[in-house]
């Protein structure tokens, strides 16, 4: 709020009217004021907290990447999207809407949490505005919410055991984001042509039908990397829980900036004669076990963060065998 006397007199008057008008609902009405006075840029970022588990710490890096993939962060000429997103988070912290639970060694925020009442506010306003819907017993295929969040407990309820089938056909064409766990049922995303964010954790990704059609994906978190990965031309963030074999087609994705896997290796079709300068800024965890791996890593000239496993590389210098560690001096 502006630091002017008249502005704060209005705030005081509003609070008084809410507090004394309705004792039973005054707390939520007061919290509504906090949301009402947020800037246009901050409102979607705040409502997005409803897509996380109640009373669970939220990793800030994951939160920021989701904000960016969703398109909530405004571009700035001299700042990265990540820096602008961090400023948004600091504003929410400054308004006491978000609580820091853990800090990094440099003082930055590592994990945060939101109060239960504020999360309830997020879910209610998000549902009213068709912004986000928590899928529960009352979920209907006629809902028009752009983002769907399905907590793990949701799939175990018998009345909605086949919840994934509710997302079929014309009823899911409006969905932009799907976050959750459908561990027992196959999910058909064939009709979700406009999906930007798919955060899907399932050990049996073979039940994910139609994923090759999601050409608008910006953020994909999945257990096993799909064979159709080359078709995701707009993909910026890729998180794979299992192991990944990096093919040349993956490195050719023009917008891919983040690649994280439990363990990644370069495919056989990647070789030093096929130089592929890529846009990767974050790579984890890549194996550098031979000279070919080292050459392929040098194609990632934009790296800002690297997590890798490596072995001493075997060198043949005019018949003399020797070992050396990978040369990472190109990482400027």
Give a written overview of the molecule.
About 4% of the residues have low confidence. 25% of the residues lie in helices and 23% in strands. β15 and β16 form a beta hairpin. By secondary structure, the chain is of the alpha/beta class. The two termini are 42 Å apart.
Biggest sheet, open or closed, and with what strands and sense?
Answer: 9 strands, parallel
Give me the count of strands. 16
Strand order of the largest sheet: 4-5-6-8-10-11-12-13-14
User: Helical percent range?
Assistant: 25-40%
Q: Count the helices. How many?
A: 8
- Radius of gyration over all CA atoms, rounded: 23 Å
> Which secondary-structure class do the elements indicate?
alpha/beta
Silhouette: elongated
Mean pLDDT: 84
Task: Label this structure with key terms.
332 residues, 9-stranded parallel beta sheet, 3-stranded antiparallel beta sheet, hypersensitive response, LRR_dom_sf, plant defense
Topology of this protein?
Layout: H1 5-21, H2 26-36, H3 42-47, E1 58-59, H4 60-70, H5 81-94, E2 99-103, E3 109-113, H6 116-128, E4 133-134, E5 147-150, E6 177-180, E7 187-188, E8 197-200, E9 208-209, E10 219-222, E11 237-246, H7 248-251, E12 258-266, E13 282-288, H8 291-297, E14 305-310, E15 313-317, E16 320-324
Parallel strand pairs: 4-5, 5-6, 6-8, 7-9, 8-10, 10-11, 11-12, 12-13, 13-14
Antiparallel strand pairs: 1-3, 2-3, 15-16
């Amino acid at each position: 709020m502006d630091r002017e006397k008249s502005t704060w007199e209005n705030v005081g008057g509003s609070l008084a009217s809410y507090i004394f008008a309705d004792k039973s609902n005054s707390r939520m009405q007061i919290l509504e004021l906090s949301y009402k006075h947020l800037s246009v840029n901050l409102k979607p970022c705040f409502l997005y907290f409803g897509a996380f588990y109640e009373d669970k710490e939220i990793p800030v890096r994951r939160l920021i990447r989701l904000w960016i993939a969703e398109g909530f962060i405004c571009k700035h000429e001299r700042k990265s999207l990540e820096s602008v997103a961090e400023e948004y988070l600091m504003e929410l912290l400054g308004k006491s809407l978000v609580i820091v639970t853990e800090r990094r060694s440099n003082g930055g925020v590592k994990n945060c949490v939101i109060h239960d009442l504020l999360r309830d506010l997020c879910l209610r306003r998000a549902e009213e505005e068709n912004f986000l819907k928590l899928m529960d017993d009352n979920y209907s295929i006629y809902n028009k919410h752009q983002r769907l969040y399905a907590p793990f407990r949701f799939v175990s309820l018998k009345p909605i055991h086949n919840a994934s089938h509710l997302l079929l056909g014309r009823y899911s064409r409006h969905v932009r984001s799907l976050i959750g766990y459908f561990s027992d049922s196959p999910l058909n995303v064939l009709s979700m042509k406009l999906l930007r964010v798919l955060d899907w954790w399932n050990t049996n990704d073979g039940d994910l039908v139609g994923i090759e059609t999601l050409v608008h994906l910006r953020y994909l978190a999945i257990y096993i990397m799909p064979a159709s990965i080359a078709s995701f031309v707009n993909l910026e963030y890729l998180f794979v829980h299992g192991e990944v074999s990096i093919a040349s087609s993956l490195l050719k994705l023009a917008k891919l900036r983040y690649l994280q896997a439990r363990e990644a290796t370069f495919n056989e079709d990647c070789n030093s004669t096929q130089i592929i300068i890529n846009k990767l800024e974050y790579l984890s965890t890549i194996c550098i076990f031979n000279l070919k791996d080292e050459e392929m890593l040098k194609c990632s000239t934009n790296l800002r963060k690297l997590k890798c496993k490596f072995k001493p590389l075997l060198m043949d210098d005019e018949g003399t065998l020797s070992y050396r560690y990978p040369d990472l001096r190109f990482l400027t």
